[in-house]
Design goal:
Length: 326
């Protein structure tokens, strides 16, 4: 599926070789369409233009309809910089030569955001327990499989914690982006859906309406680390430093007033330096899910199950150690 997604995205172009020429005339910055591409383009374009001027290299936005398209774009060097969620950033780091260099700071200075489970304000669903009891009669707006707030976090902290699986719990499951999920709840096209606090804020900016006045939040996750910015590891050290410096200092320089307006449209206060270490909590979630799957697999021989569980336990211990030494 990933291959098909990528081929559709780059059908009109030629895939570049792995090494990125240091004298390149163009850089592509990738965006996952958590909302309409037109909204994202208009919000990000002023910052992209400023980045082009600072680097002396043309920077172009690169949109894909799902997370896989941007991950594969980075893997095949059609994308050199990208805005990701944590789970998709983890995939980019592990198999697309990605490296986290910054993370966003929201307008209130929060170090992250929250995943939400929502229903329409006039829904008779009042709790997660109601959703689980009546799941067979309900339609569910799920997130992209590579979405942190749409799949990884609710999958672990909401569904696994309640020992249910959305695919078998609900009458129907529809996978979509955050914007579509919110609109689907508002328009009664699905009964319940996942979303996040960042998208609620973008909805307020784009429409002037407060989503909290129109929906009921049934569940709110623990804090999710703020969205990471990722670039390819094989960019030159000089170029990587320029890119990181641009983002971290955006809204703080001589043109701070205008830049802060740009950031406000993005619902951000700014960016802070970051690294692959911010992905550790997401790795722990994924390994915990893997461990649970192994434990419940009745087809595995006892020796194989023991071996696989030992490996997952070892990897979890390494992550715990990494956190404790930070």
């Amino acid at each position: 599926m990933l291959r098909r997604t990528f081929l559709a995205v780059v059908a009109s172009g030629v895939v570049a070789l792995p090494a990125f020429a240091q004298d390149a005339k163009t850089l592509n910055i990738g965006f996952i369409s958590t909302e309409s591409s037109s909204n994202l383009k208009s919000a990000w374009q002023p910052l992209i233009d400023d980045l082009s001027k600072t680097l002396g290299v043309q920077v172009k936005p690169f949109f894909a309809s799902d997370y896989a398209g941007i991950i594969e774009g980075m893997r095949f060097n059609k994308v050199q910089i990208a805005w990701f969620g944590n789970k998709s950033a983890m995939e980019a780091v592990d198999r697309a030569s990605g490296e986290v260099f910054a993370s966003v700071i929201d307008k209130d200075g929060n170090p992250g955001y929250w995943s939400l489970l929502i229903v329409s304000k006039d829904s008779d669903l009042k709790s997660v327990e109601d959703v689980i009891k009546r799941g067979k009669d309900l339609s569910y707006g799920a997130g992209d499989p590579n979405s942190t707030s749409g799949t990884a976090v609710p999958g672990y902290y909401l569904w696994a914690a309640n020992k249910v699986e959305p695919k078998t719990l609900f009458k129907a499951v529809r996978i979509s982006n955050h914007e579509t999920n919110l609109l689907s709840v508002l328009n009664k096209q699905v009964d319940v859906a996942v979303n996040n606090t960042e998208n609620f804020e973008r909805y307020r900016i784009n429409t002037g309406k407060n989503a909290y006045d129109q929906v009921r939040v049934l569940w709110k996750s623990p804090l999710i680390p703020a969205d990471p910015m990722v670039y390819r590891k094989d960019l030159s050290p000089e170029l990587k430093k320029k890119i990181q410096t641009f983002f971290v200092n955006y809204g703080k320089g001589a043109d701070a007033a205008r830049e802060k307006q740009v950031l406000a449209t993005l619902t951000y206060q700014g960016f802070r330096p970051s690294s692959d270490a911010q992905l550790v909590p997401i790795r722990q979630i994924e390994l915990a899910k893997e461990k649970s799957k192994i434990e419940s697999d009745s087809t595995l021989a006892a020796a194989d199950k023991e071996k696989q569980l030992a490996e997952v336990t070892r990897r979890l211990a390494e992550l715990d150690k990494a956190i404790s030494t930070q």
